[in-house]
């Protein structure tokens, strides 16, 4: 069969499958481009999103400010060459993108994997550099980066990934640092290092909601390139469950001094799954509307 014939046949099949999905309610399972890549994903987890970033909307992700860019990068490690790019341009104190993905239900557990890098010239804010949030109806936890040239509280050290519970309704001072209520959970199982800038890194995270806001039985774990970085098993965390992944650097007018060069983040792939099958939505309801509440903290 000639290539043109194969292409036409494939397009025809795609049209038929799309029509079945719309008319009959048939929903295909997400295609996993990175099978075997997400080495710390709990066994048996149900994949709800596997996005190669050929587009944003095509993955069911909301581009809150229509500010993301799909660009080509042949070095993308999982699904080249399309990647999504977020940029704070030189001379500006605001910019970047906010991407929201809301799961069909609220769950007790969530796993996230993504391939990420900055541009080599990335400097970073002089406070923590937020990357992505894994949150629920009453929580706002995020994973961010410290160290490097800008560095936040660890300027000059190699950049590393940390977790911040970022929620005023819980206290984790018993296990995390940063202040009296333990806002900052530093790597405690490895370095969590993400240096040098301009290099692709695999980031993985697993969260389990605590039973209540004071029960200290929530879990937060994260890995860099498959290696453990953080392991906290006594957290007060998101007692109402988890239902949203958000990318937001919170570059919304708080960058001071303004950058002299462009700062960019790139994501090659995003993978979200639900371990354990533990939903808090009984009976299951329709997907929720993404929340655009503020994600900025000092």
What is the makeup of the main sheet? 8 strands, antiparallel
Classification by helices and strands: mainly beta
The second-level CATH architecture of the largest domain is Sandwich
Number of helices: 1
Shape: globular
DSSP strand (E) fraction?
A: 25-35%
**C-alpha Rg (nearest Å):** 19 Å
Mean pLDDT: 85
Q: Could you say what the CATH topology of the largest domain is called?
A: Jelly Rolls
Domains, number: 2
What portion of residues is helical? under 10%
How are helices and strands ordered from N to C? Answer: HEEEEEEEEEEEEEEE
Protein traits:
15 strands; eight-stranded antiparallel sheet; disordered C terminus; Jelly Rolls; mainly beta; seven-stranded antiparallel sheet; 2 domains; 1 helix; 298 residues
What report would you give on this structure?
- This protein has 2 domains: 1-30; 32-274, Jelly Rolls, CATH 2.60.120.
- Strands 1, 3, 4, 6, 11, 12, 13 and 15 form an 8-stranded antiparallel beta sheet that branches.
- Mean pLDDT is 85; it is low at 1-29, 281-289 and 291-298.
- It has one helix at 3-24; strands spanning 46-51, 62-63, 69-72, 82-88, 98-107, 109-118, 129-135, 142-146, 160-164, 184-185, 201-208, 218-224, 227-235, 242-248, 263-274.
- 42% of the residues are buried.
- The chain has 1 helix and 15 strands, in the order H-E-E-E-E-E-E-E-E-E-E-E-E-E-E-E.
- The protein has 298 residues and is mainly beta.
